[in-house]
Every structure is written in C-alpha cells, then in structure tokens.
Design goal:
There is one protein chain. The chain is mainly α. The chain has 15 helices and 5 strands. It folds into 2 domains: 273 residues, Fido-like domain (Fic-like fold); 71 residues, Orthogonal Bundle (Arc Repressor Mutant, subunit A), CATH 1.10.10.10. Helix 2 packs across helix 3 and helix 7 runs antiparallel to helix 8. The N and C termini lie far apart (52 Å).
C-alpha cells in the first residue's frame, strides 16, 4: 500500500499559512469586474507561457498573449490561429499553446462541477483526459491518454517500468481517495500526487504538464482556485535547476518528500503573496499614488500596472515591464514611463540597455 513519507517543517508550515491567508482575502475581496478580468487574463498568459517555456517552446510571452487574447476554440488549428493573430513560430509550438488552453478549460470545468455538486476525488479517467488534450495533434492517437509500453519522454530517477504502471497508479489513487482534509492538507496532498505522477510517468509524452495540471485540478476543486488570478505554475517552473533539485531530493533522501513539499508550498506562497498585494491595492477605489508633497496623482490603468510591479520588486528592466503589459506597444509603454518619471513616481537608473526603473518619491500607495 502506497504511503508517502514527509515532514511538515517550519518552512512548509509558514508557507501554508501564507497561502491560506492569501486565498481567504482574495476570495472575499470586492474587485471591479474589469480589473478581475484583466488579472484573470494576465494569470492565464503567465501560466501557459511558464508551462510552455519549461517544455521547450520557443514562443515569447507576447506571442502567447496574442493567442490567449484571440480565445481560440477547441477545433481551431495552429495555422489558422497564427494567421489570425500574426504570431510567427513553429506550428508545434502554437499547437502546444492551444492544447494548454484547452486543458485549462477542462480543469476549470471539472473543478467547477466538483465544487457545485460536491463530487468526490478525481481519478485515472480525468488524468487520461488531461493527457489527451495536452497531446492533441502533437502525439500519436494510440499514445494519447494511454499508459505507455516503453520509456517516457523524460528520464527521472526511479521511473516506473511500463509493466508496473497500472498497479502503481491504482495504488496511488487508492491512497489519494482515502485521505481527507483532516488527515493531510490539500496542498501537501496535491504535492504528493504531482511527485508520484512525475516519478511513475504513466504516459509516453507530456508527463510533466499532465502532473502539474492535475496538481491545479486538485487545488481548484478543493477551494484553492484563487479566483483564477494566481499562476503558481509559472513560479514552480521558473527555474529548471531548482525544480529538478527539489524533485531529485526525494530519491537522494530515500523517498522522503519533505524538500519537495517545501519547494511547492514556497512557490505557492510567493505567487499568492504577489497577487494578494495587487488585489489589496485594487480593492475599493482606484489605487492612489501621492507625490512627495502628498498631492494625489491620477494614473492610467497601464501606469497603475507598472507601479504595482515596481512597488513589489523595487526595480524593473524595460523587458520586465513589457511582460506585465504584453498587449501594449513599446511606444505606448515608453510614453507611460516618461510620464511616470515626470511625475517623479519612478526614476531611471542608467542609460544603456541595462538601465532599470526604480521607485521614485512616492509618499503613500494603496
């Protein structure tokens, strides 16, 4: 019988507390509909871009944003989407973005139904559905959603032999379905599932994307959807080396998942904390920025978005600023930055391509 081993360290406990606080506040916050829509779209762009980049996709975040904004349907093909959006890239890369969007829709639908009708845990059927969508038009039909009979596309230590897959998956889901909220926190439960799905790698391809998608499905169905505003996938997959080291720590520590659980909970804490700051700044009236003398300064939505992130990070490059406004032209961004500099809300350090924008003389910010 499968029985994971891990300890709840102070680091993990603090991260879980931070996530709980962020989740509760975000759920109760009264956001204006247009701001919530914008945060939802930004989250989706970052989520899809992060997963695609980790998988070797060459499309930049601007191209991903164009495809997301286009809102392609399930039957849309990569060539047609490329023609409509003007995105230039490999057909397989564009198709991967479409597959990730379709998978995201499926997860949202399943999570909604689970919450509305109080359905039980998800199982092998839902896992296979996710794998089918991720591999659409990219994986041979006979391989999509079916357990592999050869080595997978990845080669993680301890990967299960093909003959053992059905037995280990059945054992894993038996454990998953038997554990209640009172026995194990849902984030830890989802983390165990993600690790084991990666280790077993039940499918020929897309095991990583499948595992992290199932991770989100578990969280969303258990009340940790964060109103579709948090892209923890981007944070988890931000650094391939850190991700791999956390994963490999389990094998090095004789199956102990403690470091892996710490890593995932910290990623959720960071991503939810960043989004919580944004939400808190948007609750109620439009965020107010004041000059050094205390006079309120009126800003556009784009400028507010820039100020939010600079306030969080203290300094940003022009490339980082472009990433938070993926559907805005460079000329418009530069005009906004010039205006913010003239209002002394930010200042520019350096004159070369390595120049950064830092917070200026802002007396208060909410």
């Amino acid at each position: 019988m499968f029985s994971p081993v891990f300890s709840i360290t102070n680091k993990t406990l603090q991260s879980l507390i931070d996530v709980e606080i962020a989740n509760r506040i975000i759920a109760l916050s009264q956001l204006q509909p247009d701001w919530e829509t914008r945060l939802n779209q930004e989250c989706l762009v970052k989520k899809v871009f992060g997963m695609a980049r980790f998988s070797g996709c060459d499309l930049n975040i601007d191209s991903v944003a164009k495809i997301v904004k286009d809102e392609p349907g399930r039957d849309d093909k990569a060539s047609g989407v490329a023609l409509r959006t003007g995105v230039v890239g490999k057909e397989k890369d564009i198709q991967l973005i479409l597959n990730l969007l379709n998978t995201n829709r499926l997860i949202e639908q399943m999570a909604f139904l689970a919450g509305k009708f109080k359905q039980g845990d998800f199982g092998e059927k839902e896992l296979a559905q996710i794998n089918v969508l991720l591999g659409e038009r990219l994986v041979l039909p006979e391989n999509a959603g079916k357990y592999r009979d050869k080595k997978p596309d990845n080669d993680y230590p301890g990967t299960t032999s093909a003959v053992e897959i059905p037995f280990q998956i059945e054992d894993l889901f038996s454990w998953f379905e038997s554990r209640t909220k009172n026995e194990i926190h849902v984030i830890n439960k989802a983390g165990v599932m993600m690790y084991e799905l990666l280790r077993i790698s039940p499918f020929t391809e897309n095991n990583l994307l499948c595992a992290i998608s199932f991770f989100r499905l578990i969280l969303s169905s258990e009340g940790y959807g964060f109103r579709k505003m948090i892209s923890f996938e981007e944070e988890i997959l931000r650094n391939k080396e850190s991700f791999n080291q956390a994963f490999l720590s389990v094998e090095r520590n004789a199956g102990d998942l403690t470091i892996w659980i710490e890593y995932l909970s910290k990623c959720l804490s960071v991503s939810s904390g960043n989004e919580l700051t944004k939400v808190m700044n948007l609750v109620g009236d439009t965020p107010i920025f004041k000059s050094e003398s205390g006079k309120a300064i009126s800003l556009t939505e784009r400028q507010i978005a820039i100020m939010e992130d600079i306030t969080l990070k203290n300094e940003m490059t022009i490339k980082e600023i472009r990433n938070i406004l993926p559907m805005v032209s460079d000329d418009t961004i530069l005009r906004d930055l010039k205006d913010l500099i003239e209002k002394k809300l930010i200042r520019k350090k350096g004159k070369t391509k390595g120049a950064v924008y830092v917070i200026g003389k802002v007396r208060s910010y909410r």
